[in-house]
Design goal:
heterodimer; A: 188 residues; mainly alpha; Potassium Channel Kv1.1, Chain A; 3-stranded mixed beta sheet; 8 helices; 3 strands; 53% helix; B: 399 residues; alpha/beta; 2 domains; 5-stranded antiparallel beta sheet; 10 helices; 22 strands; 21% helix; Skp1_comp_POZ (chain A); SKP1-like (chain A)
Chain lengths: 188, 399
Amino acid sequence: MSSTEQGTSSAAPAEPTTAPESAAAPEVPESFYYVHGKDKVVHKVSAGALQHSALIHGMISNLGYTEEQAKANPFPFENIDGDILQMVVDWCNQHKGKPTPPEDTNLPKQKEKLFDLVLAVNYLEIKELLTYCCKQVAMMVKGKSPEEIREIWMIPTDAEDEAAEKEAKKRAGKEAAGETAAAAGDAK
Amino acid sequence: MTSPNLLGMPENVLFQILSYSSFRSIQILRKVCKPLRSFIDETEPSANLKYVEISYFDKKCIFNCENSEKKGIELEYFPKENGCFVNHIFKNSFLKNQNFSDIFLQDVHLILKFQKSILAKLEINWDSCNSRILENLEGSFKTRIFEVQFRRNMLEMSKILEIVDPKVLKSLKIRNQDSGSYSNLGNINSFLDKFENLEKLEFEDFKVSIDFRKIRNLKFAKIFVESLTLKDLEIFKEIFPNSRTPKKFSIRIEKLANIVDQISQIFGQPIISFGRQTFRDYSCKVCKPHYNATCQGITKKDVNSCATAKQAKVQYYLGMPPNAGKDRNFIPEGSCTMNLKCPAGSKMLIPVYEIGQNPVGWCAESGSNAGVWYGGNFRMPIGMGRGADACRHSDFTLD
C-alpha cells in the first residue's frame, strides 16, 4: 500500500487523478482513503500520508479496499472534531514520506485546541505528532507556579475538590435519608 | 470541545508530557493537585539530574541540584526555636516542631526517588559531625565524580564515602577544608578495595598512608604521603614499566631523607632538576645552580629577555672543569664551577670574567663563603648578581 509518489497530488482536486494502469510504469499508483470526523466532512487522504497513523495504517492494510470501496466507506471518527481532524490530515499530508524535523512550531497555541489535538493524535497513534504535542504541553507548564497551572488547565485545588466531594456525599446522604424517610412514610 | 483539563489526558500521554518536563516542572506539577501528585509518585518520571551538591556547615544543610541544562533547585534547611526553616529562592517556610535534618532527609529521598540516571558529579561539603544524616543517605547516590570537602577524620570520611554506590564511581577527590593543614587521614587501603572502577584519586591537603599496589589500576592519582619506603619505590618500578593504565601519578612526599641515598640503587643515576633547569650529573651539594632559571630565551624585541641555560650551554662541575685556564688556580679546591657561552645577541652584563676564560664562575662548597657564587679574578672576586646570572639581551641595562 505504500506510495513513493512525489507528493504534489496531496493538494489535488477532489476528483481522483486517474493514474494510467500501465504495468510498465515503475510507480505504484497512489491509493486514497476517506476519513470524516464529528462534522461528517469527508477528507480524502493518500495512503502515504495516512501511514503516520498507526491506527489507520493498521485498518487499511487489513481491509484491502478498492478505490470504490474506500470512497463508499469513509472511516468515521465520531470522537474527533472536524477542525481537529483537518489539522491532523494537513499535518499528515505535509509530512508524507518525509523525515520529521526535531521540532514543529505550527502546533495550535490555544490550549483547548492543543488538548483536543493531543487526544485525537493519541487515538490515531501518530507517534511523531504526539511527541511534538507533549513537548508543547511541557513547554506550557514550564516556569509556571502550581496556582497558574491550576488556572490554565482548569484543575480544582485539593480543598475545592474535597469540598465538592463532601457536597456530593452530603447530597447523596440526604437523598438516601430522604428515600429512607419516604420509604418509612410509605410503610406507615 | 473537551475542557482542557490536564487530568483528562490518557496516562501514556501524561507520562510522555512529564518525560519532556524538567525536574523542577515535575515538582511543581506535583503540587498542583492530589491526583497529579499520586500519578507522579506512582510513575516516578526521571529527574535526570546531572549535578548535586550537599553542604552542611553552621548547622545549615544546603541541597543544590542541576540538570544538564544547568537548571535546578537550591534548598536551605536550618533549625530555629520550636522548629526549622526551609528556604528556597522564592519562598521561605517555617515548619513548626519539625527537626530540620528530618525534613532535609525527607526531601533528599524524595528527589532521589526520581533520579534514575547516574549523576555526573556529586559534591559534599561537610563541616560537621552529624553522622545521622550521612547514615541515612547510605548508598543513596550513583555518581561518576565524587568530590568531598571535610575536615575531620578517617571515620567521618568512610561515612561520607558510604553514601555513594562504589561500583559506578570513576573519580574521587577528597579535599581538606583547612587548606594547608595537611592533617593525616591514616590508612586508606580498605576503602580503595570497594571502588573497583575508580580511575582517578586525588587528595588535597590531606596526608594518607597507602599501599601503592592498590592504586595500580588507576589512571590518575594525586597523593600526599608522609614518607616513602624503598619497598614503595620498588612497587612503582614494577607498576609503571609493565602497565599501560597509569597515565599520571603525582606523589608528594613529606620526608624523603631516609631513602634519598638509596634511590639510585633502584632507579640508577638521577637527573636532578632545580626549577625549570635540569642538569645531568649535577654533583655540587652546597652550591645550587647559579644560572637564572626563569630565562625563556632571547627575543629580539624584548630587551629584558635572556638566554636559557641550554642556549648558553651552561655546565656545572664539582671541581675544576676540563681544560681549566691556568690562571684560575686561585679557585679553592673542591669548588663548584660553571662554564657557559653566551649565544649571539646576548652578553653577561658585568664582565666579571673575561669571556672564554675557563671556568666562568665558581662557588666554594665549604668554608665561610660556601654556597656563594663568584666571578672575576683572584684579586677582585665579584659577586655574580643580577648582571651576571644569565646571558641577557645585548641592549639590556641594569636600572
